[in-house]
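Reopening closed ticket. The problem is back. First fold of the pair:
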Amino acid sequence: MPQQLSVWTDFDTRILSSIAQYHVPVITLKKNTTKAAICQVFEKVNTGGVSLTVFELLTATFAVDNFRLREDWEKREKRFEGMAILKKLPSDNFLQAISLLSTREKREAAREVGTREEEKLPPVSCKRKDILKMKLSEYQAWADKVEKGFLNVARFMHAQHIFDQRDVPYNTQLVPLAAILVQLGARFDNDGVRSKVKRWFWCGLLGEQYGSATETRFAKDLPEVLAWIDGGPEPDTVRDAAFTPERLLSLRSRGSAAYKGVYALLMQKGALDFGSGEPINQVSYFDESVDIHHIFPKKWCEEKGVPNGVRDSIVNKTPLSYKTNRKIGGAAPSEYLKKLRKETKTDEARQDEILKTHVITASALFEDDFNAHFDDRADGSSTLSPMPWVRV
């Protein structure tokens, strides 16, 4: 008995007393605590878990009204999968587009009832705190329209010769673009309207204006682009756009939006495959596994001591099919061009025409003159500019 008592006393001292005296941290959230604050608290205390996203918070909020946001999103996500551009579209981006439209609607409603002072009008916004204020009725009012807007975004991107999600310069730019297309509706079929949207898109892309502070730019672009289409001043994104030749030298990988943009422009301007002589469209892009490849091959450049930075610049790259690139291998341009002429039964004049569609001076390749090729193509980059407003 004494032995059992000793064991019990030891257990009580080491285990039970420790539990009884253990302090559990508690954060009390009152009923008037904002959703944004709840989210911040969760993220700070749940450092080892998954952050509570805006989508998760709205899912819980809408569940109170027996609406299953996740199920609704999954159905829309499946419909997006038919468009390679929209694969893995973040649910938050979808919510941002809805927020832009719903807050703009509130702003315009306030303007109509007599509030004329701009600073007193409710702002157009898609910031986290504003998305969290979204009502189920607002989501339901805009969700189908925004889904159609993103599908139209994919079609617009195809027209720019951007066919796959990996080649989208700025995924963030798709958000205001979807909202703009929703607001324009059938008006987007008009050439003048479409031209302005295209101009805004390329200014944002080549001007590399969607790399940071995107939510603020979203909120500016939606009303400014719509006002511009109706005769107002140019949006800041258009007015501030600039692209200098020096930037070409530092475009070396898909990590750069402008790199992807130049790649798309080459295809849009009618670049013909070196081997087949056919233009690149949505079908051939996937069927022929088109990608961007070196003109002077990497192996050749290494053997000749061409610096890596120059070798890998977008100036020395162009869209080609997988089959054609395999034929090129690591050979000198003069050698692979001769090989392609023989295999495709093409004469030098036709091959010269094909190279010109890539803004390439044929003589530089026929003579294996990398420096002449690089300088000529960099100078000729201005012909790629889709409109004169992008200062290339």
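Second fold of the pair, where the issue appears:
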Amino acid sequence: MSLKLINCTKKFKNNLILDDVTFEIPKGIFQLKGRNGAGKSTFLKIISGLDKKYSGEIISNGASILYLNVDPIGIHPFTIRENLNILWETFNIKPTKDQINKIEFFFDGKLDMSYSRSSTGMKAKIGLSLIFVKNWDFILIDEAMSTLDSESIEVLSKTLVNLSEKNKTTIIYVSHSLINERLKDYSNGIYIGGGKIWCQNERN
């Protein structure tokens, strides 16, 4: 599956995010980089389909796209497990036993914890759990890993690398505090700035 922007222009207030950009997103894992206010979050929302206020065309060819940001998506007063079941039912997902085991490990066995008493990192894992239970063509992560502990980030990074290599999933993430060497080693850069988008090979 491919995702391509054709002659796309996007303005936010007085800031020109995209200036007649034509750009095809390549396969792989990419860290989206740019100065504050360059439009990283806006760009992810545009290619995910959440922001439609732009000119030009985006061709996705029916690709399945997962977009995750820092906003929690859990519901009070349910447990983590109940929230996961609601989320999977919303996406019509029926996890396999192996996938459920991975989720149990990711949540450190705390699925029956009350959502209201869960840490910020635990709440963030609810949305991130979708990475483990469905084969997505594109996974877009906007700072959603920022509240996780290092062990959880390692589990997630290993999964993302495997999805990229085995399933050819394209992953684009924004992170200002990434400390995981595995993800860094497998990542190239997509840069945004001055209304332009470009790639840079940064793998060793």
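Update: turned out to be a display glitch only; the data is intact. DSSP finds seven helices and nine strands in the chain. Strands lie at 4-12, 15-24, 29-33, 55-59, 65-68, 138-142, 170-174, 187-193, 196-200. Please close again.
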